[in-house]
Amino acid sequence: MTENENPQNKEKFFSKADFKRRIADVRKTRWIRFTIVSLLFLGWVAWLENWWVALLIILLFDIYITGYIPFTWWKNSNSKVVRTVMGWVDAIVYALILVYFVFAFIGQNYQIPTSSLEKSLLVGDYLWVNKMAYGPRVPMTPVHFPLVQNTLPIIGTKSYLENPQFKYHRLKGMGNVEAGDIVVFNFPAGDTVALKVQNPDYYTLVRLYGRDYIEKNPQVFGDVIYRPVDRRENYVKRAVGLPGQTLSIKDGNIYIDGKIQQLPKDAQFTYLIQMKSPLTDLDWESIGVAVDDRGLVPSSETDSATMAYFGFHTNSDGSVPPIYRVPLTQDMLSKVHQLPGVLNLIKLPALNDEMLFPEGISEGWTRADYGPLWIPKKGAKITLTPQNWAIYNRAIKNYEGHTDSWLDESTSTVYIDGKPAKEYTFEMDYYFMMGDNRDNSLDSRYWGFVPEDHIIGKPMRVLISFDKDKGLFDGGIRWNRVFKNANPD
Hints:
Blueprint: H1 7-13, H2 16-25, H3 28-48, H4 57-66, H5 80-105, E1 107-111, E2 125-130, E3 182-186, E4 192-194, H6 202-209, H7 211-216, H8 218-221, E5 224-226, E6 234-241, E7 246-250, E8 253-256, E9 259-260, E10 269-275, H9 281-287, E11 295-296, H10 304-310, E12 323-328, H11 330-337, E13 342-347, E14 370-374, E15 381-383, H12 386-399, E16 406-408, E17 413-416, E18 419-421, E19 423-425, E20 430-434, H13 444-447, E21 450-451, E22 455-465, H14 472-476
Antiparallel strand pairs: 1-2, 2-22, 3-6, 3-22, 4-5, 6-20, 7-8, 7-14, 8-9, 10-12, 10-13, 11-12, 15-19, 16-17, 17-18, 20-21
């Protein structure tokens, strides 16, 4: 038996005298650091409103004061390699823990990947998202790698453990989501994902191909998996409808409870522009149209019927002057009017769209003429009818957890948790989100309401912005957007 294994030595190690010695040996600076960390920790616990977590202060006391747990054993190693390697490991672990807490409770960076909010936010903008604006969520999937959303790069595996899972709880924030706020949230329809085809989303794929076809063709669609709420993809849109409001869209204008809402300054709609001659890169840049938005209408779409319907011109030799499909703000539209050689300029009409939400109810609706639709509110009660079930069943089943619920079409009876029910009371608030690029945004018009437990935070500032169509040293960095307000309206 070695000296360290001697029971008498262990008794001495945990003795009262040993405890006093350890306390006496602690330097004053160590006590100051422990006090500061403890106050911050207890303030965080008070914010959590869960005082059981305060028991972890015992661990902090050992880390800073008593040192019974040998976290820094490697510092006394005789091996320089061990000391060097573990020094790096120690620094990385501390950094990851700090990043975890900052990203979970304060804020995080977010990149704009699509043009759905152009020109309010641009593709290539890197935002600072304030999670304290609406109150941060306590992580529902606590064990996850802090620098990625759901998939580890290169190896392609999940970046989180599915268990444990915590119930949704939001801490107190500085305010609530208000109409017009640009909001970052987890994609509601991202709960189920076909790994090989994630755009369009799984539920759109089901409407297009059927669930059985997707499951029987994994070579095309990949495995179908479930993702927890806070591990679903991050989206950014503008909140245009709040809980308890009734939203409708008429000729592209949003009405809330019957009152027309002011358009965001940089809202875009798609126009068809016919020019005498092709537009140059300088023309496009003078208007402010990104390369990806410079859509030349193919000749296959310029048949005589289409030309007559839109009033487009045809040259004497039968050729068709170029026609472009372009999203424009009001300011950009005025610049187009100033271009020489404009033959025709019309706003693209919205056609009936079978993929609009809610399925079975939106027949005859378009993205520009939509609704009316009531947005669920926490504590509000609805009568359960076949029509209401078509609108709100996803919220009831998928978001509020009543998975054993369905509509018996033969009797028009709705069952909640396996029992017939005539009414339902919502457990969460919901929001209607839309992009400012109104004709080029897959938003709540296509996949429905955003539940409150999916809300992440509010973009505050553009940290930096990169133009992917330009070189890094040739205008690739948009310096005029650095620290720009990310919620201008």
